[in-house]
Design goal:
7 helices, Response regulator receiver domain-containing protein, 6-stranded mixed beta sheet, about 15% strand, Rossmann fold, Sig_transdc_resp-reg_receiver, 6 strands
């Protein structure tokens, strides 16, 4: 199990990859009698997160074609809210951060529910976004464990649960019994996610 990692707000945007100027292939000299050489095609660039499934690919495609709200900067004197992203897919966690650019958030990532619980033992969190299907503990059991915490602040953290399961109604029912605050089916759009987040986690006011 990999440890959970804290990700700064600026990491929510993807940095452009450095590009190298193409080099013109050498031209054969007039004295050359051999056949003309054809340059080899460029190697296919590798994906940043390895192979992703069709559901994730559709979500990224939607993010690329949908106008998102401008990147938010924290107001002076306002402490950024902290979001715990619990999902075993790194690409999904990155997509969620892109969608959440409209709010001044700090991010903590966890690859499993068990890792997420470890985070909650040591770090303050204002919002939890969790997947339902994960190796080990699922999202509903994770939410139920959070609600049963002896720490009152932890037990009251707003939880938004997501799923790509075909039987979304059953998953929603399990989540509601566990005490989640909101539910959404993947692939989720930016508008859907931000509407739910704005509903369950009001923007902090300057003290």
């Amino acid at each position: 199990m990999k440890p959970a990692t804290v990700v700064p707000e600026a990491a929510a945007t993807s940095s452009p990859r450095p590009t190298t100027a193409p080099t013109e292939p050498p031209r054969p000299s007039a004295a050359s009698t051999g056949p003309a050489l054809t340059p080899a095609p460029p190697a296919e660039s590798s994906r940043p997160f390895g192979v992703i499934n069709s559901e994730t690919a559709k979500a990224f495609a939607a993010a690329a074609t949908t106008e998102t709200r401008a990147f938010a900067r924290p107001e002076p004197g306002v402490q950024p809210q902290r979001v715990l992203l619990v999902d075993d897919s790194r690409s999904i966690r990155t997509l969620l951060k892109i969608y959440l650019m409209a709010r001044s958030f700090e991010y903590i990532e966890a690859e499993s529910a068990e890792a997420g619980l470890k985070v909650l033992e040591t770090q303050p969190v204002d919002l939890i976004l969790t997947d339902f299907h994960m190796d080990g503990m699922n999202g509903a059991d994770f939410a139920a464990t959070v609600r049963a915490s002896r720490d009152v602040k932890v037990a009251k953290i707003p939880i938004l649960m997501m799923t790509g399961d075909a039987n979304a109604a059953e998953v929603r029912n399990k989540g509601q019994k566990a005490g989640i605050n909101a539910f959404v089916r993947k692939p989720v759009s930016c508008a859907q996610l931000m509407t739910l987040v704005d509903t369950i986690l009001p923007t902090p006011k300057k003290g």
